Description:
Helix content is 20%, strand content 37%. The chain is built from three helices and seven strands, in the order H-E-E-E-E-H-E-E-E-H. It has helices at 2-14, 68-79, 133-138, and strands spanning 17-25, 34-42, 45-53, 58-63, 80-87, 91-98, 101-107. A hairpin with a 2-residue loop joins strand 2 and strand 3 (45-53). The longest helix has 13 residues, at 2-14. It starts with a helix and ends in a 15-residue tail after the last helix.
Amino acid sequence: MERARERFERIAEDESLILAVFSNPRKKSAAVRKVSLRPVLLKGELRYQAEYAYEKKVTHENLLPGEIADFAVRQIQASFKQADVYTKAADALVLANKPDHVRVTEKPPTKTMGALEHDRKKHYLIPEGEPADFLVRLGVQTRDGQVVAKHRG
Length: 153
C-alpha cells in the first residue's frame, strides 16, 4: 500500500493527474458505486473534485492537492478493489483484491488534460452581449445585447 501512497503523493506534487476512477466496490451493498477524482480550478486555485456516484444521485467534494494521497489510499483500502489512474505520464491500473495486497500496472498515457475550469461558459443559441438589430426590434434582446428573460427558453 505504501507504493500506491507514494505514487499518489508524486502525482499531487507533479500536478499530473488527469482522472482517477475508483470502482468495483468491496461490498456489493455499498451505497457508493464509483468515485471519480479530477483536477479543477476554483477561484484560480487548483483543487481536486471527488465525485461520488450513488444509485440515483451524484455528490461532490473538493480536496486540496495535499489530501489526494490519503483520499486515494482510503478509497482503495476501505471501499474499492480497483482504481484506474490517468496521468500525463502514464495510465495505471491499481488492483487490490485484499486491502493489504495492492498490484499496480502501468501503460503509456491515453488521455490528455482537458479544461480545468469549474464554471464553464454556456453556449446559447442567441449569444449574450451581441445585439442583433432584428432581435432588438422583436423584443427578444435589449439594446445592450442581453436576452429578455421571458424569451430565454
